[in-house]
Amino acid sequence: MTTFPSGFDQPATGPEGFSSRSERTVHLCAETALFMRDHVLSLVSHDLRGPLNAIHSWAYVLERKVDTADATAQRALGGIRSGVEQQVKLLESIVDTTRAETKSIALIRAPFALQPMIDATAGEVRGALAGARAVTLVVASPLADETLDGDKERLAQALWLMLTYAVESSAREATVTLACTADASTWHASASFVSTADALGDPAVAHLLEAFARRQAQEPREAGRIAWVLALCKRIAEAHGGQFEQKEDTLTLRIPRVS
Question: Cα torsion at 128, 24, 226, 99 (round to 10°)?
């Protein structure tokens, strides 16, 4: 019997759901959650340091303005600086240390055929989720014998997550299209879908992504930022020297074919 990590939705049951998940699907869900945690910690570390540095700098400015004989004011300024230093140490000792496990991705590079990997990954998503939600997953790819020198397993994970997110964001009986092309320098993979407001949170349909991740994905994003749950796609793309981009209804992966 397959066990499910704490925090993951249990499989849906009945004609619209599925009764079990393959070990590979559970592994992919766990990898998605791990790198989402890393992404959140990275944002916390980055977004807190700016304000903390500003507070620390302004404390020194105020120190020059405040009467040195005013003991109360000097204690207040000392408390501000001390508090900032404590927060920075917490970021270094807890947040940055926790991120160390996934701060870099060790790639196992080897040449591999692109189209079989694409077809196998699309098949996994159809079997694990798309079929249960009556979503049609179409692969539009003119590729034949094209190869790529990269980490096949990691790139398959990125593609799986793109397609899973697209299916999760789509209404029942919708269509998700994966378009893949390759020129002399780059492999392009683009998942297109029509996002439906309630699809990510609908409890009546099957889900693979964590409820927390699906809720966050529905929130407004700052320019250039991606939904947290897609962090694995971004990290794998960057590890290969490529790019990952999220637009409203399109997820795009670009990976160099030559290093």
Answer: 150
pLDDT tens readout for residues 166-203: 999 999 999 999 999 999 999 999 999 999 989 999 98
Q: Do residues 163 and 178 make contact, with C-beta atoms less than 8 angstroms apart?
A: yes
How many whole angstroms separate alpha carbon 150 and alpha carbon 183?
16
pLDDT digits (tens, 9 = 90+) for 92-115: 666 666 666 656 788 999 999 999
Residue with the two structure tokens 């034949």: 144
Residue type, 238: E
- What are the residue ranges spanned by the domains of the chain? 38-102, 110-256
Cβ contact 8:29 at 8 Å: yes
Q: Which residue has the higher pLDDT, 255 or 86?
A: 255
Q: Which amino acid is at 200?
A: L
Residue 63 corresponds to which tokens in the numbers above? 């120190």
What is the architecture of the domain spanning 110-256?
Answer: 2-Layer Sandwich (3.30)
